[in-house]
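Below is how a single chain appears once it has passed through the pipeline. First comes the sequence as given, then the structure the pipeline wrote out for it. We keep one example in the README because the format questions we get most often are answered faster by looking than by reading.
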Amino acid sequence: MQFRQLERIRRFQLDAGLIYPRGLDTSGTVVTPLYDEKLALVGVLGLLGDDPVPSWPTIAGLPLCLLQRGMRGRDLLDETVAAHDVQLDPRIETDSIAGLIALVRTGRWATIVPRTWVPETESEGLRCVLLAVAGAHVALVRADAEPASVLTAAFEREVRDARAVHS
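Resulting structure:
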């Protein structure tokens, strides 16, 4: 999907997009790093147990719902667990992180999503475990042409200003 997004940006059909740039051909584009995603395992308290950070084999044994294969976030997750000689076999796959969180709230499922998508867990009886894996880099991408669209240029300026404040 991100391959098509990049191609549409190169053809000026899209002004910009948010991507996981690792492993993608970003030639002909300007890539502005935004942040590193932190992955979290989320489920109800009883489902996840008490282990501070469950092992990948333990996680693989949970009733998982995950993003569908072919989505960049899922592909990166599969690469990460494969490096630990584990394969995740979710019982449900969807293209919606909000849908995954809704399934987790039923109490029957666990998921792995970017931490920024996880609601306040304690008030909902959920447990959120930050996983000790390298998260994916998220970046803004636009065509390598000047001038950039007004909106894209403004967003890039805000990113630069925010970095200056936080450095």
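The longest strand covers residues 29-36.

See the next section for the split statistics.
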